[in-house]
Amino acid sequence: MNFELFNFHPQITAGIDLAGYHSPTPIQSQAIPEVMRGRDLMGLAQTGTGKTAAFVLPILNRLMNGPRGQVRSLIIAPTRELAEQIHSAIKTMGERTRLRSVAVYGGVGINPQIRALRQADIVVGCPGRLLDHIGRQTIDLSRVETLVLDEADQMFDMGFYPDIRRILSHLPTQNRQTLLFSATMPKEIRHLAKDILHHPATVQIGTTAPAETVSHALYPVAMQLKTALLIKLLERTCTGSVLVFTRTKHRARSLGEKLSKAGYRSASLQGNLSQGRRQAALDSFRSGKCQILVATDIAARGIDVSHVSHVINYDVPATAEAYIHRIGRTGRAECRGEAFTLITEADTAIVRAIHKTVGRPLEQRTLPDFDYRIEEATLEKRRSAPANRARLKVAPRGASRPKAARRAGRSSKGAFSWLSPGQMK
User: Which domains does the chain have, with CATH numbers?
Assistant: First the structure.
């Protein structure tokens, strides 16, 4: 199958060629005909499946006819990075159309956005900044023909549900096509879909389990030994670009600094950074200049890098659905990827939920050359010295150690009795 079967406008076809697309992905081949018929759509697909083009191409094709310089399509995304990614895709695929797209999000000046909105045909925005423009009356949404909610489940997780409802109240309800895309389908998103979609077509592409191109492994470890185990994993693993997830902004920044001190080309991506620094970190990671990017879930939305070889969960995500989102950053475009997750005794419940979502117990591994009793004070000293990162020394077995270290110093053989039975390697 190729894109010629969709009978796109010639200028859209030229944009497809510029984007380097040859054959549509499953989500594109199933969603595009339904969208072009004007139907509402529920799209269930993981990240990396090509869903952006599945809605951008039909929107561009629709907007080729009709007035210009009016906001006729609104795309709402949860983060700045994803909004910018979609905006960039529109510019590439729509380069020959002369349609104008503008991305609106916080963290940057609002005045350039106000000027761009005066002639925009497509707006890609985050909920907070969209509400700012609505409040300032600098955006007119009364002529919107197509609404897209991308990564709807993530927007709900981030607390944007009330904002979405407020934005919807400013959109026309008659003759509006609505497209909702989500990697998972919690009950809250089902309720939203029921309210805003009218007799929708449903397209589902592998959303109940992670991509088959990704292999998984769990690495049990004491909390205070996580950084040492992460460094040991990086030493012994042949990696390309590595995306490391943490739960907090502080930990992302701290871990990025520790990896840099250990001799790795690393950067962190978290909410406290300015938009310029966030973009610089992303550009460095995309280009390969930076090998390791440490990020929080929120900051990592919209990272579209095809050469990520490994996703490492330094902290276990809060939900099994978030696990699916995270590991969707590797194994993209039919490439193989690996997902490593460091787990502690406190993570038992979420690990069971991940097993259920994936559909099988994940393999549990330990490293034979890693001393799970190693003293944290010794670790801190070793990992701050780049020249020594490959020669972490083990504290003498009979040496006196602080009580906290003794509590954490169980051997690898007996340290993980809290785990459910599974294969250990």
Answer: 3-205 (3.40.50.300), 214-408 (3.40.50.300)
